[in-house]
Amino acid sequence: MNTRAKRVESKGNSQTTNLEDEISFKEFVFRIKDGYNYLVSKWKIIVLMSSIGALCGLLYAYFDKPVYIAECTFVLEEQGGTGGLGQYAGLASMVGIDIGGGNNGLFQGDNIIELYKSRRMIRKTLLSIGSFEGKKDLLINRYIEMNRFRDGWTNNPSLKNISFYVPENQFKRQHDSIINVMVKDIKKNHLIVEKLDKRLSIISVKLSSKDEWFSKVFADKIVENVNGFYVQTKTKKSSENLKILQKQADSVKNVLNLSLGSVASAIDANPNTNPAFQFLKVPSQRRQVDVQASSAIYAEVTKNLEIARIALRKETPLIQMIDSPVLPLERKYVSKAMGIVAGFIVTGLITCVFLSIRAMIKRMLQN
């Protein structure tokens, strides 16, 4: 009897739960319908606000300056090799397999990309002189003019008349502070450096700004500065070795020339030497020994010098520009049609959400 009663009670509870779920779902549907009807009743306000948003979008598109993008692409090829393994690594990279065997130099892979983003290279580029529409000026001055920084420095005596046309060793704290802010901004918002493909050695450098000339000149200058620094650092040891050998070769050659002159002088001092007096030949013979020794040393140094030159040419990386920025640059901007559509839709959605929240708060207060 008790079991039967429990079954009847359980069945009743299940029916009650299903009924409550059905009522809740219907209530949810009714609330959505009421909300929809409420928004339809407010269509004049929604259309009005959306039209205002469309007008704001049009004004934004009209007054907003386009962003100009300057892109440089170049290929970087390292000289020297790793023997047969390097050849197999090259074949494997064609099918997407990396088995190593490449050069693991200081600037390999992502390191050279980080070099482009380094403070030193961006600072050097900003302090470089570029040609803007036929006028020579520092890139940092163009950057200040582009962002109208001097308008905010009028009330600051230490920044009002600041000039960057001074040697870097005379820079003050204000100079370094301004450059640090610019370097961070360029790294974060303007400069993009990437490899177009991980398996290739093609590197792309992009600089975007609202000044077309600044974008072009900065992109050209930073590629020039970084690639020059890269080649200089990569070949530094070989260049120093070549300079030392060249200095030694010049010194030995001078000694050889002096020795040849001494032999001639010794012979001229006794032009018709009596064969019976061998002592008179000693000075010239000594000079001839010096000449022979200097000649042997000079030949060895010259050979080492040629080897050093070959090594320098072998270690010098090949950097070949593929594309450089050419005016007019690619530009990104918000078209008037896009501004109108985006302003209309965004403002309309915001208005609908605002009206819905206000209606819900009013209903809650009434309850």
UniProtKB/TrEMBL annotation:
Q: Which UniProt keywords apply?
A: Membrane, Transmembrane, Transmembrane helix
Q: Which GO terms describe its molecular function?
A: protein tyrosine kinase activity
List cellular component terms (GO).
plasma membrane
Question: What residue ranges are annotated as transmembrane?
Answer: 45-63, 337-357
Q: Which domain of life is it from?
A: Bacteria
PANTHER family linked to this entry: FERRIC ENTEROBACTIN TRANSPORT PROTEIN FEPE, TYROSINE-PROTEIN KINASE
Q: What is this protein called?
A: Lipopolysaccharide biosynthesis protein
Species of the source: Pararcticibacter amylolyticus
